[in-house]
Amino acid sequence: MVNDKGIRVDGRRVDELRPIKLEAGVLNRADGSAYIEWGENKVLAAVYGPREAHPRHRQDPARALVQCRYNMAPFSVSDRKRPGPDRRSVEISKVISEAFSHVVLREQFPRATVDVFMEVLQANAGTRCTALTVAAVALADAGIPMRDIISSCAFGKADGQVILDLNKEEDNEGEADVPIAIVPRTNEVVLMQMDGHITKEEFDSGLKMAVDACHRINEMQRDALRRRYSVTTDTREAVKAISEGV
Ligand code: CDP
Hints:
Layout: E1 20-24, E2 32-38, E3 41-52, E4 65-72, H1 87-101, E5 112-122, H2 127-141, E6 151-158, E7 161-164, H3 168-173, E8 176-183, E9 188-192, E10 195-196, H4 200-229, H5 233-243
Parallel strand pairs: 4-5
Antiparallel strand pairs: 1-2, 2-3, 3-5, 6-7, 6-8, 8-9, 8-10
The protein binds cytidine-5'-diphosphate (CDP).
Cytidine-5'-diphosphate binds near residues 88 and 125.
């Protein structure tokens, strides 16, 4: 899994992320949307709201609900996945909802809901981190007020070495997988799960690695939003010319 030069099966160093491509505003019908390719993972996110929560008995008179649905397409994995919700997707939807509930300014929208849909089109380990990262961009694209754009990444252990952002082989063969999500501005942890075993020292060094990576990912998330909303001088002049009837 890791050779004596510290190189992994896919050629990465222990603290190296897989390549990430991120684009905001990819769907016309959603209030906000984004698409990500993170290594071999491909995930689309769509956000609706804030809108009135239905059925009414689910409304919170003091704040908005943040309802998330993580879904894996049947063709996203090597053994076809049975369509529809299962224990795993219900769990992932729940932990992602809880993470976003910490940053969305929910008190501004009593009785409302913000709905976040994440569709995994292709999976290669780390899809909950990928889904959360792209959904955070879609929430910002929808103009949902938040304390920060949260970012997510996993660390783990394979061949006795602490590694960042496990791929499928490392996830299967490795000793531990620890996905986290943080609020970059404050470094608060809003999601942390652990599969496997790891010592306290390994945990501390892995956590530092993943927090650093989340800061790099946050820059990519902001960059995707800047690309979506930046207006070049030429565009501004064209808009002015049109409005003046030139
Ligand atoms: O994707 P993530 O690492 O957040 O969650 P996981 O439950 O640790 O799953 C790891 C990987 O196993 C997924 O990313 C998929 O590539 C794969 N998987 C699969 O092949 N079939 C499933 N029904 C579920 C997951």
